[in-house]
């Protein structure tokens, strides 16, 4: 896939983040010439490079399960977010960034905002 093809495919994409992020990330992998993520298994210990990696949060004794959009063990955690145009969308992004920071702390990584 060329950058022109990638841009033509994704520039008009609307506000359907949950529906589009997997396809977007696979196309991004194709664009930059890296392998696509592996299928997720029922054993998180085996899921070294997957979409929708389950993570457990422990917030002062309250446990919950969250998901990382794209995870590669020992390399990165990637969360996709649709563009923001309203203050409500911006607040949602800020909440998502806080969640991402918590996830990264759990696995010992640092947050980098592009």
Write structural notes for this entry:
This protein has helices spanning 3-10, 17-32, 87-107, and strands at 49-59, 62-72, 76-78. With 114 residues, the protein is of the alpha+beta class. A three-stranded antiparallel β-sheet has the order 1-2-3, sandwiched between helices. Strand 1 (49-59) and strand 2 form a beta hairpin. The model has no long low-confidence stretch (mean pLDDT 82).
Write the layout of secondary structure elements.
Layout: H1 3-10, H2 17-32, E1 49-59, E2 62-72, E3 76-78, H3 87-107
Antiparallel strand pairs: 1-2, 2-3
- Order of strands in the sheet with the most strands? 1-2-3
- The SS-based structural class is alpha+beta
End-to-end separation in angstroms reads: 23 Å
Residue windows where pLDDT falls under 50 for at least 5 positions: none
Reported for the largest beta sheet, the result is: 3 strands, antiparallel
Percent helix range: 25-40%
Mean pLDDT: 82
Order of helices and strands: HHEEEH
β-strand number: 3
User: Nearest-angstrom radius of gyration?
Assistant: 15 Å
How do you describe this structure in short?
This protein is α+β, with helices and mostly antiparallel strands and 114 residues long. The protein is built from 3 helices and 3 strands, in the order H-H-E-E-E-H.
Keywords:
alpha+beta, three-stranded antiparallel beta sheet
């Amino acid at each position: 896939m060329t950058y022109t093809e990638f841009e033509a495919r994704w520039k008009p994409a609307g506000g359907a983040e949950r529906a589009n992020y997997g396809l977007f990330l696979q196309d991004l992998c194709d664009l930059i010439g890296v392998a696509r993520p592996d299928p997720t298994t029922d054993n998180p210990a085996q899921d070294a490079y997957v979409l929708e990696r389950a993570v457990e949060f422990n917030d002062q004794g309250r446990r919950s399960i969250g998901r990382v959009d794209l995870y590669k063990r020992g390399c990165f955690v990637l969360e996709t977010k649709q563009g923001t145009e309203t203050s409500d969308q911006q607040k949602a992004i800020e909440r998502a960034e806080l969640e991402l920071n918590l996830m990264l702390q759990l696995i010992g990584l640092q947050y980098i905002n592009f």
